[in-house]
Each structure stands twice: as structure tokens, then as C-alpha cells.
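Hi Y.,

Following your request, here is the sequence exactly as I used it, all 125 residues.
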Amino acid sequence: QVQVAESGGGFVQAGGSLRLSCRISGRFSASYDTGWFRQPLGKEREFLAASGWSGSTANADSLKGRFTANSDHVKSMAYLQMTNLKPEDTAVYYCAARFGRLGEVVSTTTTFDYWGQGPQVTVSS
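Below is the corresponding structure, written out as C-alpha cells. Let me know if you'd prefer a different format.
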């Protein structure tokens, strides 16, 4: 089955940077759409960004230009580069995937079928 493996979580000082990585494994993994979400403690999960296999992208307004999502679909990898981190960025961060769909692009409301473990990112002041 499809596996979503994340890495890069940890503790960061406010103002610092961190990059999360996500590897998608499974049949036709190079054709997956990927997405990034986060869930602060006690709050709802929120969408951050998505990258479609065909080149489409989507970003949440909450990124405020500080987070950049990128992907290498040939290598079945997705990345979330986070800069100028703030304490309010503290959350569990999730990478997710779905099979890319012909004629359909990713959006802020795209749903995903496969999810990573959700490493914790903690930003201290």
C-alpha cells in the first residue's frame, strides 16, 4: 500500500527555519498529489499547501509568505520550507498524498487519502 514517511520535525527557536521532508512510496508514486497540513494542540487541522503531479499548486493564506512547498515528483518527494518561525507555528505537521487525477488540479480544499505520522514542530520564544 501507499506509505507516507515524514522527517524534519523538532524544536526550533523563534525566527529560525526548518524544512520538512516527505517521501511517498507505492505504485505510481511519482504521480501523486501531495499536501501539507498542521494541527496545533486543541485546534482543528488546517491546510497549508499542496502540489499536484501535473504542476498545479495551492497555498493557504495563513502561510503569509513564510512557508514554501515544493516537490520532486520523479523522486516522489515533497518538501515544506518554513522560515521566520513563530511560537504560533507550533503544531503537528502532516504530509498527505493522493493519486493525481487527470484534468483536475489541487486547491485549498483538496482531500487526500494517505497520511504521514505527523511529526511535532515546536517553536520556542
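The CA atoms of residues 67 and 82 lie 5 Å apart.

Thanks again,
Q.
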